Amino acid sequence: MRADNNYKESKIFSLVLIPLLSQYVLTLEEVGGQRLIPIWIGINEGNAIGVYLQGEKIPRPMTHDLMANFLKILGARVERILISDLKDGTYYATVGLTSGNQRFEIDARPSDALALAVRTDSPILVSEKVLKKCPVIMKPISDEEVDRFKKQLEVLKPEDFFKGLE
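The structure corresponding to this sequence follows.
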């Protein structure tokens, strides 16, 4: 499924551990655009995404692997992940599934939806509404800028990022 006017296709740009907060900041990058969307996620979900992105092999399936295996065995397919809203500093997501000729939209935390997306190679779409509500971060160009961006994320708290937003 392609992005329409209300959704922009995105992909994971970075995943940064913030040890003092026991959290990760996952940053989505607008495909074909300059905007970045930072999403604070829990340590377990961040580890689940990071393990998969790094190609690490683990002896037993993690929760998101189990979910992907269930879907595959049942003949269901993840069509898309939608990051659909941003309210009071909290992102909202849905997992779009198909099974046979039925379609389902399942409410999910963005972290779980993204952990499932990387395992099922599913498109990630971000609502234009979210992009308008989220403070604009422009994509760094050089490796130096990427490193500086990651260092800034390490000291930034979610409440600092959303200060002054309605």
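The longest helix spans residues 143-155.
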